[in-house]
Specification:
The structure is a single chain. By secondary structure, this protein is an alpha+beta fold. The chain is built from ten helices and five strands, in the order βββαββααααααααα. Strands 1-2-3-5-4 form a five-stranded mixed barrel. It is elongated and about 60 Å long. The relative contact order is 0.09.
């Protein structure tokens, strides 16, 4: 219904919701912990990408400072057993980039450490999203595991090349991340990744 809402940050509630004043109308919006920690000061302008949840007697707005967080939220709530509340909790415990990396690398242990996410839920998230999460959506402008942005671009390019060969995103990502420990160029990563997958 609303792609985003922009206005003046009017109030921050203790329950994790914020009020954005848009032309005299106050929108009560639930946000993630990550978004909450990066909001401007009260009275300053803010733009939140929003998701409208309508169900029976529920009408709620969920807001995200960055669109990639909204995209990840929408992917999470499409998983059976993961509702809006849990999705907000997950994205409050980990940023969308780290979550995308954990899903692509099938890192059940890391996901299980997020408050409210048990091993079974972590396994379900990975099972349902590892082929639906495009790593480049969440990592192209940020660092992965300590790599620089330029190294990250090389990693993204190598993953894209392997996927074009018919390799799954999850397998391609794991192979490239392993190769990036010793290789620095895209071609070298691709070569090492393919060798590793042949073993």
């Amino acid at each position: 219904m609303y792609a985003f809402i922009s206005g003046k940050l009017d109030y921050i509630n203790q329950d994790g919701t914020v009020v954005v004043d848009n032309n005299g109308i106050g929108y009560n919006i639930m946000v993630t912990g990550n978004t909450l920690s990066k909001l401007p000061r009260l009275g300053e302008s803010v733009k939140l990408y929003t998701y409208t949840h309508i169900k029976e007697d529920i009408f709620a707005l969920y807001g995200f400072l960055y669109n990639d967080e909204k995209v990840m939220f929408q992917k999470l709530i499409n998983i059976n057993g993961v509702g809006c509340k849990m999705a907000i909790g997950i994205l409050s415990g980990v940023d969308s980039t780290t979550l995308a990396v954990s899903i692509a690398s099938s890192d059940v242990t890391s996901l299980s450490k997020i408050k409210g996410v048990g091993k079974k839920t972590a396994e379900r998230i990975i099972l349902e999203l590892k082929e639906k999460v495009d790593i480049t959506e969440f990592t192209s402008v940020s660092a992965i595991g300590g790599t620089t942005i330029s190294q990250n671009m090389e990693i993204n390019d190598a993953v894209t090349a392997l996927v074009s060969l018919g390799i799954s995103k999850a397998d391609a990502f794991k192979a490239v991340m392993k190769a990036s420990e010793t290789a620095t160029s895209t071609n070298a990563m691709i070569t090492l990744a393919l060798r590793g997958m042949d073993r």
